[in-house]
Specification:
Blueprint: H1 5-18, H2 22-36, H3 58-81, H4 88-101, H5 105-123, H6 129-153
Helix pairs in contact: 1-3, 1-6, 2-3, 2-5, 3-6, 4-6, 5-6
Bound molecules: protoporphyrin IX containing FE (HEM) and isoquinoline.
Family: Belongs to the plant globin family.
GO molecular function: heme binding; metal ion binding; oxidoreductase activity; oxygen binding
Cofactor: heme b
Length: 154
């Protein structure tokens, strides 16, 4: 499967739009995860002592932004090299964080769906299946790399 220049551009352009309102979209992203999989709440340390999703939580925002940025980087790498080369140490670190948090393979589909819903919300009429396809493809590659790290560790 090839990742085209057009797909890379779509991913970059849509991130440029979403990043104009980080507080809004990081919250939306996270809320979607919990709407799809309410039980996931207990895995997140920044939620353990609260009943609702905290607005303007710095950790939540920072992590949500990283998911978007890393998916963008993956898109760029896929276009340039045809493979995922997010720094090895980053992947190892994320592998161990997710393993320790109790994340399982099916959760990755939940986060993908939440990401897609957030794009839909943020892009409005600029959203289409091509955009969704480009993000999904990049996300799947990144998720596969993290899952592989999680399996190496246990
Ligand atoms: C933490 C990215 C998938 C749950 C994090 C962090 C990043 C990240 C950057 C912060 C690490 C740190 O600095 O401490 C990603 C990416 C994913 C992904 C890029 C997919 C491509 C998932 C999935 C779940 C999940 C599928 C399960 C619903 C968590 C949890 C933490 C975490 C529970 C720890 C948060 C905390 O307690 O501080 N993730 N993640 N992640 N992620 Fe993910
Ligand atoms: C961590 N991992 C995946 C998705 C996330 C979304 C919001 C906050 C933290 C996250």
């Amino acid at each position: 499967i090839v990742f085209t220049e057009k797909q890379e551009a779509l991913v970059k352009e849509s991130w440029e739009i979403l990043k104009q309102d980080i507080p809004k979209y990081s919250l939306h992203f996270f809320s979607q995860i919990l709407e799809i999989a309410p039980a996931a709440k207990d895995m997140f340390s920044f939620l353990r002592d609260t009943d609702e999703v905290p607005h303007n939580n710095p950790k939540l925002k920072a992590h949500a932004v990283k998911v978007f940025k890393m998916t963008c980087e993956t898109a760029i790498q896929l276009r340039e090299k045809g493979t995922v080369v997010v720094a090895d140490t980053t992947l190892q670190y994320l592998g161990s964080v997710h393993l320790k948090s109790g994340v399982l393979d099916p959760h990755f589909e939940v986060v993908k769906e939440a990401l897609v819903r957030t794009l839909k919300e943020g892009l409005g009429e600029k959203y289409n299946e091509e955009v969704e396809g480009a993000w999904s493809q990049a996300y799947d590659h990144l998720a596969l790399a993290i899952k592989a790290e999680m399996k190496q560790e246990d």
